[in-house]
């Protein structure tokens, strides 16, 4: 089987009106990237497709989205190792950049969903983070990615950790991949059958316009074909609908001259006012605003993310410091360089587990002593109570008191000497034991005296 090639087409629809993609404009958040000339040799056969969705108006987030797409492409094609590891590191770099922007910038907080797909030798590797929508059409049906709604989704740019979902497929000639906005994920999968099942990309793009209808969406469709179809271009333009197209608008780019001048040090910048909250009155009387639960939740997430980001930064700094203090050594030592002594590292490596074992053993032993001491206290109290309930059965009472005193000896010699509760219970047992012995001796003397008195009489 010959190697598969990718034919792509893009759609940008706003409220049912298709936006024409011209040479000076581009669909925000979509990237189709063949391997660049300076790519790492392990990435020389990887074809990258990215669909990025950010919260807010796509026209307002176009610059930020393009920066993130450039970062993903740069990180991916510069990384070595496995494909999924390189793609995951690129996604994590984009997440860290967006998170750092949300934590440090005064602009509107942006979160999003990201789908990255890579074509290599007829195989498709897909990684998704946040809320996304991807459909893979075969000649027998459609496969949805993710296959079912997720219970918990962590969007891009909210925390330093991401729940990245992996998928791998072996493609056949004629398969179609659709990367779309999650805002149309409510549409049933069967509604995309005419656009993705047993059709070509030109017909599929035309059908997607009817599927989206009056909604808004940014769509990237990819058709995978072998080398036998040489008459297809690499990029397919959708057919505009009469009365349902808009003039292409160039995407905004940064203009350093248009940046706002810095405010003087003594001047306070105007603070934004939340929608639905009245500004404070000027007569000195202020009305406390209602608690915005969403804002409180966002602030809490931001604080947690900032702490995690600071911890990861500290860990990276510590690793770099250790690398500088202990740089990797070359295989061949210079003649003047002395060999390194491994005595101390070996001793430390041996002592650390020994110390940990000693500490853990001590904790468990102390826990056993505390548990045994509690058992001794309970048993002594129970034995004293049983002895008090024996009544005239002095032999049984003495047996209970002796057992209580034996437990006290065990506590003093083997468990924990000097326990106040054990000492109090031991004193009670001794006093009751002496009283019991005195009572027995008194009754014995009386029994001896009675026969003597009878003989005299």
Description:
It is a single chain. With 457 residues, the chain is of the alpha+beta class. It has 2 domains: 5-246, Phosphatase 2c, domain 1 (4-Layer Sandwich); 348-456, Methane Monooxygenase Hydroxylase, Chain G, domain 1. 42% of the residues lie in helices and 16% in strands. It has helices spanning 62-78, 83-104, 193-196, 201-212, 293-325, 343-388, 394-415, 420-456; strands spanning 5-14, 17-19, 30-33, 47-54, 112-120, 123-129, 133-137, 142-145, 165-170, 176-180, 217-225, 235-236, 245-246. Strands 1, 2, 7, 8, 10, 11, 12 and 13 form an 8-stranded mixed beta sheet that branches. Strand 5 (112-120) and strand 6 form a beta hairpin.
List the helices and strands and how they pair.
Layout lengths: L4 E10 L2 E3 L10 E4 L13 E8 L7 H17 L4 H22 L7 E9 L2 E7 L3 E5 L4 E4 L19 E6 L5 E5 L12 H4 L4 H12 L4 E9 L9 E2 L8 E2 L46 H33 L17 H46 L5 H22 L4 H37 L1
Helix pairs in contact: 1-2, 2-5, 6-7, 6-8, 7-8
What is shown here, in short?
The protein is of the alpha+beta class and 457 residues long.
Q: How many β-strands, per DSSP?
A: 13
CATH architecture tag of the largest domain = 4-Layer Sandwich
Name of the CATH first level of the largest domain: Alpha Beta
Structural class: alpha+beta
How much helicity do the residues have? Answer: 40-55%
Q: Which homologous superfamily in CATH is the superfamily of the largest domain?
A: PPM-type phosphatase domain
How does the overall form come out from the CA principal axes? Answer: elongated
Summed over residues and divided by their number, the pLDDT gives a mean of 79
Strand content: 15-25%
CA radius of gyration is 40 Å
